[in-house]
Structures are given as structure tokens and as C-alpha cells.
Write a structure and sequence with these properties.
Two copies of one chain form a homodimer. Chain A is α+β, with helices and mostly antiparallel strands. The first copy, chain A, has helices spanning about 35-45, 75-85, 155-170, 175-190, 200-210, 225-230, 240-250, 270-280, 285-295, and strands spanning about 10-25, 25-35, 60, 65, 90-100, 115-125, 135-140, 265, 300-305, 315-320. Chain A binds a DNA duplex through α9.
Chain lengths: ~325, ~325
DNA sequence: CCTCATGTGCTCAATTTGAGTATAAGTGTG
DNA sequence: CACACTTATACTCAAATTGAGCACATGAGG
């Protein structure tokens, strides 16, 4: 019996996609690879026996294959190639989701193996240049400009997205559909005074995708949308994976102390706040944020003083590693 | 180039494990298959070219292979075999986690393919007998007796587990290790007045596993532990998958209205409360629970009356399906 | 009619949250 | 050096939420 790879059942390869996040100058950045057909071939070594369609020369998430004989676990497989290729030590790693849709990788299909991708979120502090060719740190709001509310509602929402959504709602075939679309747009995009919820990143992206308002969903006939307006597209379904990661991280920081994985060893409370704000894309009330952090006891004063604040010098704090185990239940819940 | 199934890289098969949950008579039940070597062979059709070790004739989670040529998505693959085999319509399905550890399936190894399992949580209401041979609904507290706090702290905790944990803590090699173990036991098992957290199901199981306090982790030399005391073991790593599912579901009901997937079309508020209690393994304050539910507006009075309550008749309610989209942010947060 | 069991409305204090005022302690400027 | 400007930090206060409980309603069964 032909176990597993039985041709009649189709073949499967497992890929590991990493969303590697760091904060650089108060911006939430992800490591992306600028693909040309050549670098793609080099990267996807085992996968690219076929050329990529022209369309897919987009920025991509770093990707590595999973070798069942070499890697004891999925996570160790991920860690090994990421650390090897980026020279970064990755502290926190979390499995996000496994993506197995047919057609998610255009190179599959007739004869090609099905590519099932396990997405991971990794948090790093160290942002030295990586050894990955063509890899750069890119703000994640580059891909999701409507997610950054740190300076109030993003202009692109008011000016472009919401009108387009209203048109999409109005273009419904039936009344039911219209109501459903309206409802959905309200929840995800905060139409008509519905509150904005920072965690619905994936839900928003999927709505835009279905409504044909992002470039990935263009059919190739209509002319592509202006890129800087609806965010930069990514290769394959990578923007979806990134949306999953952002949503997950935004949710997680509210109840687990994962922010500290992105912080330097010591930091001021305002620096911490800026990082939380960068991730969640919102603004926080400074005094209340400070009260919250102190109450949780996640942090302790080092006694040292930071004086490059531009104002009164601030105490430097350190994350109390002890509490990583202690009270799993606490993060930096804001709003 | 031998794509994907390249022998030098090892082969991979993808399996789909389902934790199918229903509430029957106020107990949270999961569908398990009582494996004999024969049924196992039938079930794991593509996988069992090798006999299972004797040890693994345990209860197992229903399992189905993923056929990349037949199934467009992982989820549809799961849905199709579950619905076909159980005759149950499954409403809610959620991907849990992808398990790819080497050695998680003893049938891999020399020459065998690596079995990567994608675990899913499915919620059903309908509990008619299934068409799966040897499948039965089993209370999940059968496998995790220490997780049921509905009648106060479970006796097994005080009498057996906590003493065993203290012994494990005391048996540490170094002072650091002792402190770490103590800390961890406090958080997960609520030692010494640390509060019990219902969501840490997996963390508790893993601690017991590492401390050699559950049967799966027995080395085969020492005599097996009394089963009814530390919960019934399951095949392979299925108890871990189940723990993941319970923890996830307990967390989820607090912020998403997923409980209703387990409810009949109409129900009284007490019935709803009992279901939440069954899932979370805790007791809730009746009046406050009612206040919470009403405030959220998740539910509407049908006008009908249930009089089989044993006391004053109760109003029957219905879940407002509309809110499934509406405010994603709300569940039945208790405690 | 009385008891028992549950359903349902309401109270009340403790705590948490959201928003703001006030003051401290640095930097750079005229 | 007085002054504006910036950030840090302490404290206040009202509104909202939560945890616990009392009281009464409404059925069944003796």
C-alpha cells in the first residue's frame, strides 16, 4: 500500500510561514521578502518546479519548508530556519493557523503537490539586518493602512473605503443581502457610530476581499486599484496570514504579557505604552495605562532614570519575568 | 525534481482530528471511538500499514484523512467526513491547532510517513446515535476529572493530585527548579489560595504529563496509575488535543456567543446557565448570569413557557441569530 | 393551605473604568 | 534667569460594572 503520498490521493507538502514582528521606532514592523522570480526560486527550493505567475512578484512573508525527517516538531522546524536565515534569536513563537485551501498557491494544480502552510507568529526585539536576501522590515500598516488609528480615524477610511463599502452595500441583489452586508460593514468597519474593534483585522480584510476592494481579489480584467490607497498587496494569501497575525497579537496582548517580548530589557512606561499603541493601532490614556500596568505588577522599577525623554526624566522599568508563569491571566488590557 | 513527497525529505500525510462536542443531560460530551485494532485499521485506512502497539488500544478521537485532490479546504475535508460518518449536521467548526510532533503517532518512524494532524473543534446539538462504529458520547470530565468544579473543588484534587504535585515539587533537583515547579503548580492548579482558572486545561494536563502523573506519560516499567483517579487515558496524543479543545472552548464562550451552537432552538435561562456551567466546570450566580445575558441582548423571549421546571414555569428564549455578526465582541462572560 | 422548587425583579456595596486636574522635573529660549 | 514647553507622576471623581444577596412570584404536590 502506498502510504501517504499515494498519487491517487494527491501529495501534500507542508510549508512554514512566519510573521516575524518587531517594533522599530514606534512602528510595528514585519519581515518581508521582496520577491523576484529568482529569489523566489531560491527560497521555495522544493516547491518551485514551475514558474510563478507574473502577478505574484509581490512582497512575501518569509517561508520555509518543513522536513519531517529533520524536524522533530513543526515549531522547531520553524525556529531552525528562521534563526538560521535571520540571525535573530526569536523569543516568542505562536502557531497561528493552518492554511490549506486549494488554489492558495497557484503553483499547485495539475500534478503539483498541495501546499499546506502552517502560519506562525514570532516576536523579536533584535532588529539587526538579516541574512535573508531582499528581506526588509516593513510597517504592517503599509499593508493595512486602515488599521492605524493612532492619530484618529485614518483618512483613507472616510475618503475611500467607507464610500466604496456603501456602494457595495447598495449594490446588493436583495434586501436581505443588503441588510447583511450593512450589518457586517458596521461591525467590522465601525459604520454609523458602531465602535471600532481593533481585533477584527482579518474580518475587515476578508470583507474588503469579498467586496473586491483589495488588489488580491482583482480578477485581472479590471484595472488594479491604486496601491497606496487600499494597502500594498502581498504574494499568494500572505496578506491574509498577516491579518490573522495582527488580529491575534492585538487580542493576545490584552490578556497575556506578550508585549514584553518586543521590549528592550529596560524601558520607560511611555515607551511601553507606545509599543502597545503601535500594535493595537489605538491611542491610550496615559495615566490610566500607567495605573493598569502598576496594578498588574508585571513590571518593576530598576531605579535607573531615562533622561532622554524630552521632558521630565522617567523611571526605567524591567519586566518581571517571574510573572510569565504567575498569573497567566494578565496582559495590558486597554479600552 | 521529486516535488513534495521527496523521499530524502520524508513524507507527510495530513490527518484531521475532530473534537465533537455536545451537551447531553447537562454533561459536556465528546464523541470518542473505542478502538480495537480492527476498527482502527478501518478508520485510519491510509495510515495503518503497521499494527498499533498494544498500549494504544485506547479511546480515540474520531479521525479522518485529508485528501488534497478531493477536499478544497481543510475544513471542508473535515466537514465532509464528519457529516458523512456521524449523520450530524455540524454547525460550528473551529480549527484548533496543528500537531506535528515526531513520535506523536507510533506508526510513523522507519519508512512511515510523518502524520501531521490538524485538530478541529466542532459543536453539535443533535445527538442521535452516529454511524461511526464503536463511537460513544463520553463526558469530557471522564478524561479530566479535576476540571469539574461544579460541585466545589473535586475530591481527587485534594486527595490525590495536589499531594502528588507537592511530592513532585519537593523532588526537584535544585532550589530554582523547586521554585519554578511550585510557581507553575500554583497558577495551574490553584495551590495555596491562588485562584483556579478554568481555561488552563492544557497547561494543567501538560504539567501532570511532565510530572509523570498521567498514564500516557508512564514509561511502561512502573505500574499504570489507577485510571479513575487521574482520568482515562486516550490513544496517541488525543488527550492533549482534547485538552486544547476544552481550554479553547472555555475561553471562547466568554467573548463569543458560541454556546448557542450547543443549545436547542428554544431554552430557558437556567438551561443556558447549566450549559455554560457544564463547559466551564464552574458554578454561576443565577441572578447575575441572567442580568448578563439580558444586557448583552443575545437572546429574545419567545413568549412560550416551559413548565417542566420543577418550580415556577420559565420563559423560553431563542438565540438572536442576528447578533452572530453584530458585536462579535460578546459572549457569556462569567467570573 | 402549606411546603418546596424554581423563576424573576430589585438592592447595595465594592471594585473597576474613563476622564480629567494638579503638580513635578527636566530641556531649550530670549 | 524667567519662561515656555515637554514629559512624568500623583491624585480625584463620577459612571459603569461586578459580586452577593433579599424578596417575591408562580407553578407542583401533599
Amino acid at each position: 500500500m502506498n502510504v501517504g503520498g499515494a498519487p491517487e490521493n494527491g501529495q501534500v507538502v507542508i510549508g512554514l510561514n512566519a510573521v516575524i514582528v518587531a517594533i522599530i521606532e514606534e512602528q510595528p514592523k514585519v519581515l518581508v521578502v521582496q520577491h523576484t522570480p529568482e529569489t523566489l526560486t531560491a527560497q521555495h527550493e522544493t516547491l518551485t518546479d514551475r514558474a510563478l505567475p507574473h502577478d505574484d512578484r509581490h512582497e512575501a512573508l518569509p517561508f520555509g519548508p518543513f522536513y519531517p525527517l529533520k524536524h522533530r516538531t513543526l515549531e522547531s522546524g520553524l525556529r531552525s530556519w528562521v534563526e538560521e536565515q535571520t540571525n535573530h534569536e526569536i523569543g516568542y513563537v505562536e502557531q497561528l493557523y493552518t492554511f490549506g485551501n486549494a488554489g492558495r498557491d497557484p503553483r499547485e494544480g495539475a500534478g503539483g503537490p498541495r501546499v499546506v502552510s502552517v502560519g506562525y507568529l514570532a516576536l523579536v526585539q533584535d532588529t539587526r539586518p538579516t541574512a535573508i536576501e531582499n528581506a526588509v522590515w516593513q510597517s504592517w500598516y503599509h499593508y493595512f493602512p486602515w488599521e492605524d488609528w493612532r492619530d484618529g480615524p485614518p483618512r483613507i477610511l472616510e475618503k475611500d473605503i467607507i464610500p466604496a463599502l456603501r456602494k457595495w452595500i447598495a449594490g446588493s441583489a436583495t434586501r436581505e443581502q443588503r441588510e447583511e452586508r450593512y450589518e457586517r460593514a458596521c461591525i467590522t468597519f465601525g459604520l454609523d457610530d458602531t465602535p471600532w474593534s481593533d481585533e477584527l483585522v482579518l474580518e475587515r480584510y476578508e470583507l474588503l476581499y469579498e467586496a473586491n476592494l483589495v488588489n488580491e481579489s482583482q480578477d485581472g480584467k479590471s484595472k488594479p486599484l491604486p496601491v497606496d490607497c487600499r494597502g500594498t498587496p502581498m504574494a499568494l494569501d500572505h496578506r491574509r496570514i498577516l491579518a490573522t497575525a495582527i488580529g491575534r497579537l492585538r487580542g493576545k496582548i490584552k490578556y497575556r504579557p506578550v508585549v514584553f517580548e518586543l521590549m528592550p530589557p529596560t524601558f520607560t512606561l511611555l515607551q511601553l505604552q507606545r509599543v502597545v499603541e503601535a500594535l493595537s493601532g489605538t491611542q491610550l490614556h496615559k495615566q490610566n495605562f500607567r495605573r493598569l500596568i502598576e496594578k498588574k505588577g508585571l513590571v518593576e522599577d530598576t531605579g535607573k532614570i531615562e533622561s532622554q525623554t524630552g521632558g521630565r526624566p522617567a523611571s526605567q522599568f524591567r519586566f518581571r519575568r517571574e510573572v510569565l508563569m504567575e498569573r497567566q491571566a494578565l496582559g495590558v488590557r486597554h479600552n
